[in-house]
Amino acid sequence: MKDGVCPACRKKDPLFEARKDQAKDSARDLERQAANVMNEIRSEFPSYVRDAVDITDSTAYGLTANEWADFEEWRHTPAGREISNLVVRYALQMKRRGWEHFAIEAVVNKIRWEQALKHGPEDGDSFRINNNWKKRLAIWAMTRSDDLKGFFRLRETH
What we know:
By secondary structure, this protein is mostly helical. The chain folds into two domains: 16-43; 63-148. The protein has five helices and three strands. The chain has helices spanning 16-43, 65-75, 78-96, 104-123, 133-144, and strands at 53-54, 59-60, 63-64. The chain has a three-stranded antiparallel beta sheet with strand order 1-2-3. Strand 1 and strand 2 form a beta hairpin. The radius of gyration is 26 Å and the shape is elongated.
């Protein structure tokens, strides 16, 4: 039926326009519901990774909201704050020295070395950097400064 006219009898369906409007309303409702679900899923992640959330598997950069929450909890500890800020500071130093890209592994190992010297073995446990934090530290650091956007290359998570 084209434009509400029956090809066989050439009569106009009086409900055609109403059905068409109803279908448009249903489509808009579905779009709104989908947007609400996407926003709800994104809201579970830290603000700096929300644009990277993959709705199909509810991850950001291959990590779940719970994994990001664990990182955020650590990042707000005294050691996490100090280490996070050092990552940004050292990355900016390397960027200003001329490096377009650098390895988070090298930055983290520099911090590990310095923290071990600074705090010694008696306080070393509180300043350990879990290897799982490296990717998250790199992502967090790249959101702290426009100069660091894309500075660390991220591997795909399998």
